[in-house]
C-alpha cells in the first residue's frame, strides 16, 4: 500500500522500489531509469559529505521546463492560438547560481527567459543569460542604477522589458532612456480587482502593493503619448500571487488583464506581450484540491484555460493574440530538490515495566491510578483515561507542595504513559475510533530528533504551515510500526514537523520505522526546490546544508554533477559579524592562561586549540 501517498504527490518523479528504497526518475514514467535515493545518499557519504544534504536532480528541472513549454505548445495548437508562449523563470524562487544556469541551459531550446525582481537579481540574470531571443523581465522597485542596467541590456540586444510597477518610475525611465540614448521596452504592471485566496496571494487585488490602477494606467499612457513613446509600451503584466490553488481565480484574472490589454491596444500602445506572472501551483499534498498546499487543476488545464481565456476576450475585441509570458517559478523548481537528513535519536512516551505492586507509603492518588490501570478493559477506556489524567494532575499538585517525592512522581508518570499506551493498543481492536484517538496518537507519538533545521531548510513549514511530503528513503517495504513527529536540532520548540500528508488529507503523526542500532535511518523531505533555500535563516547558527546535484543517465546510471559544501561554523559566524581569526586568537590566549596556571600541559593546549580550530572549519550540523 502507498502509505506515504507517493503516487499522489510525486508528480511521477518519485517511486518506491521493491527493495524498499525511495527512487527518483528523470522524467515521469521513465521507470527503467529509476535511481535509488538511498544509494545516492550512500555515495554522498562515501565522498565525505555529512547529512543534512540537499539533493538536486538536474533532469527534473529539465523535464519540468519541457513539460510547461510543451503543454503550452499543445494547448495553443489544439485551440488554434495564433500567438506564442514564452516562459520567464523568476529567480527569486531559487536564486542559486547552479539552478539559474541550469534553467538557462535547459530552457534554451524554448527560449525560456528570466525574471528579476531587484537590482541584485537583475545583475545575476544579466550574467547568466545568453539567449537574446528569450525575454528578460525587470520587476520590482527601480532606482536609476536598476533602470540603467536594464537599458544597457536592451542596447546589447536582449529583449529586456522594464515593468513599471509604480507611477513615479515612468518619468525616471524616460529620463534615463534619453540620457543613455536607448529605446526602452516597457511593460505596465496592473492592479487587478481579482483577488486569489491562499497565503501568498496578497500580490493581487486592488490593495496590492505593486501595480498601477486604471487611472494611473491612463496617466502613464498620456505621459508616453506626450513623449512620443507610446510605441515603447509593449507589455501588460500582473501577478496574482504564488500557489494559486483555484483555477477559477486564474481564469478570472486572465480575463480582466485581457480587457486592460485591449484597452491599451485601442489607446495606440504597441502591446504584444501579456505576462500573467507566477501562481501555477504545486500539488504538494496530492489532494488535487483548492487547499493551500494543493491545486484543483492539472498543468494541461492551466495551459488550456489561459489560452482559451485570452482568445475568448481578445477575439471578441478583434485584437491579435499576444505572446503569452508566464513567470512560473514554483512549478518549475519545486520537484527538483529533496532534503535528506539522518535521525539522531528517538524519544518514546512509553514507560518502563511497572512494579507488580506499588511501594509502601505511596500517595493515594498513585494508588487510584494504579487501580484504574489494572481495571482497564475495552468497555471502560474513556473512564480510565479520565481517571488517570485527574490523578496525574493531583499527584503533580502534591509534588509542587512537597507532599510527593521525586521517585513517586516518576512512578506516576510511568503509570500514566503505560495507561495511555494500553488504551491505544485496546483501541486497535475497535471498529470505530477509540476515546480521543487522534489526540492520543499525537501525545503518544515518538519524537524523532533529526539532523536539520526547519528554519534553515523548510522555512515555509514553520512560517505558514506549508505541507511538504516527508518519508523515509529506505525500508519502505517494511511496515513502519512507530508513529512520530520530527524535531530538528535547533533548540526551539517551533523547530519541528508535526503535520504530514495523508492519503485522506493531513495527519499529525508520521509512520516511521524503529531505528536500528548502528544503522542510519534517513528521511527525505520532498518538493523543496522552490523558495526554501533563500528564505531559510540562521536560527541557532545552523547554516546552509551541503548541496549535491546528480544527473540521471541511461538505465538508472547517474553521475554526480556538482557538490557544494555547506556553511562552516566560521562562515556563519562571519555572517553575524564575528571575526573568526579574532575569536581563534582570543581562545588561544585563554588556553595559554590555563597553561600558565598549571591547569593543562602545553601538549594538551595544542590538542584543545586544534579542536577549536577544527570546529571553526567544520559543518554547523551534527557530524558523524
Ligand atoms: N512573478 C512575480 C512578480 C512574483 O512576485 C513571483 C512570486 O511570488 C513569481 C513570479 C513566482 O511565482 P510562482 O513561484 O508562484 O510561479
UniProtKB/TrEMBL annotation:
It is an enzyme of class 4 (lyase). Residues 569-622 form the Arginine decarboxylase C-terminal helical domain. Its cofactor is Mg(2+); pyridoxal 5'-phosphate. Keywords: Decarboxylase, Lyase, Magnesium, Metal-binding, Polyamine biosynthesis, Pyridoxal phosphate, Spermidine biosynthesis. One of its GO terms (molecular function) is arginine decarboxylase activity. Residues 361-431 form the Arginine decarboxylase helical bundle domain. GO terms for biological process: L-arginine catabolic process; spermidine biosynthetic process. Its EC number is 4.1.1.19. Residues 67-334 form the Orn/DAP/Arg decarboxylase 2 N-terminal domain. The keyword Metal-binding applies. SUPFAM superfamilies: Alanine racemase C-terminal domain-like, PLP-binding barrel. NCBIfam families: PRK05354.1, speA. Belongs to the Orn/Lys/Arg decarboxylase class-II family. SpeA subfamily. PANTHER family: ARGININE DECARBOXYLASE, BIOSYNTHETIC ARGININE DECARBOXYLASE. This is Arginine decarboxylase. It comes from Desulfobulbus oralis.
